[in-house]
Amino acid sequence: MSSCSYCHQRKGKRPCPALGGTICSLCCGEHRMTRISCPQDCVYLDSGSDYQRKRLSEEFSPVRRSFYHELGELGGQKAVALFNLLEVITFSYFEGRRDGQDAEVVAGLQALRRTLSPLHIPSAPMPVFAEHLRKEYETFRKQNPEQIADLSDAPGILDRIVEFISVFSGSAFQSSRFLSGLIGYVTMEHPEIAAHLKRKNEPGHILLPGQSLLPPPAADEHTHGPGCRHHGH
User: Fold this and answer.
1) Helical pair 177-189 and 102-115, crossing angle rounded to 10 deg
2) Looking at the domain assignment, is residue 231 inside a domain?
3) How many whole angstroms separate alpha carbon 26 and alpha carbon 112?
4) Whole-number pLDDT of residue 207
5) What whole-number distance in Å separates Cα of residue 34 and Cα of residue 175?
6) DSSP-derived secondary structure letter, 126
7) Are residues 10 and 77 in the same domain?
8) Count of alpha carbons within 13 Å of 140, Cβ hemisphere only?
9) Which domain covers residue 9, as residue numbers?
10) How far apart (Å, rounded) are the C-alpha atoms in residues 6 and 91?
11) 2 — phi, psi (to 5°)?
12) Which of 106, 108, 110 is nearest to 174 (CA)?
């Protein structure tokens, strides 16, 4: 058996059309669509992507829950709603793409933050995802002005979201850890929302009425409501 055409150390166990030889499963899983220009019809793309998303979703879920709690303390429910909206937009945009990278998400959030600044002066055209993100945010904010962080609070919250994504993404070149974790999480934990978002939707109509990706309260957390004895006191 020949050696891996990428690392030249381990045995090549599967054919790699991009490298014109065989590749070990470790290099295939780690470098596909980033350092290796895989053809779209490669039989290992779908199965590999599904495995990566499932594995990273399990790592992403508890980190995500902690971050939601932090956002609630930082900016209340409106800050939480902003991140929830960004997750939905990001999932809807990248779910069907194999070549999506976390850098695109970060660049989009940074561009959105600049447009919310009173000192912003438009210059070069925005990246495609950044423009899509801006339009969706503006549409939702106009339709639901009381539900989401406004122009005064959103920039600081976006800075913290960018930091969170960057930390989870890691320092690897062309990383997609955040996207894989998010897409895997939504697909596994919220299949009905994932099925809805996989269909193409008009701008401003990507959210399901009465549903969101917000994590449920922890078992020891008390949520006030109409049936609560504390309600109204």
Assistant:
1) 90
2) no
3) 37
4) 52
5) 8
6) P
7) no
8) 24
9) 1-42
10) 31
11) -75, 160
12) 106
The half-sphere exposure of 30 on its side-chain side, counting CA atoms within 13 A, is 9
pLDDT of residue 224: 45
Instruction: Provide DSSP, 19-42.
Output: TTEEE-HHHHHHHBTTTB---TT-
Q: Does 215 map to a domain?
A: no
With residue 15 as reference, give the H or E element that holds it: strand 14-16
Query: Rounded CA gap, 82 and 25, in Å?
Result: 39
Which segments in the chain show pLDDT lower than 50? Answer: 202-205, 208-210, 219-233
- pTM reported for the whole predicted model: 0.71
Indicate whether 211 belongs to any domain: no
**What per-residue confidence (pLDDT) applies to 49?**
64
pLDDT of residue 120: 65
Judged by DSSP in three states, 16 sits in strand
Give the burial string for 66-99 (b: 16+ CB within 10 Å, else e). ebbeebeeebeebbbbbbbbbbbbbbbbbbeeee
Within this chain, do residues 128 and 38 fall inside the same structural domain, yes or no?
A: no
30 and 64 in a single domain? The answer is no
User: What pLDDT was estimated at residue 232?
Assistant: 44
Q: What angle do CA 185, 69, 49 make, to 5 degrees?
A: 15
Is 90 part of a structural domain of the chain?
yes
Both tokens assigned to 191? 């299949």
- Structurally, the chain folds into a number of domains equal to 2
Question: Is 139 in the same domain as 36?
Answer: no
Distance CA 69, CA 61 (A): 13
Nearest C-alpha neighbor of 205 from the set 135, 153, 129? 135
